Fold this sequence. Notes:
The protein has helices at 11-14, 16-22, 24-45, 47-65, 70-74, 81-86. It is mainly alpha-helical.
Amino acid sequence: MATQHSARPNWFAASWFGQFMASGLGRAVRIIGGAALIAGGLLWIGGMAGYIVAAIGLVPLLAGTFDKCVFSRLFGGPFSGPEIRALRGR
Length: 90
């Protein structure tokens, strides 16, 4: 179910960065970045700090996989990638 937002688009979601992060390439960057954080945490850092870095890496990995944008939501915009892309050109 789509969330209703005001007629004035959120500044972050309508920005070039917000649109990039919601694009296919932006999603790929988040997935690869999240996987790199997980691998780096588990393979190179190790110990408790490595587990923390790996857990942090789950956020961009899952957000990219499920087409969600955490930053947009933090700045008051929509959480869903399709809703962010719908703001393009407004």
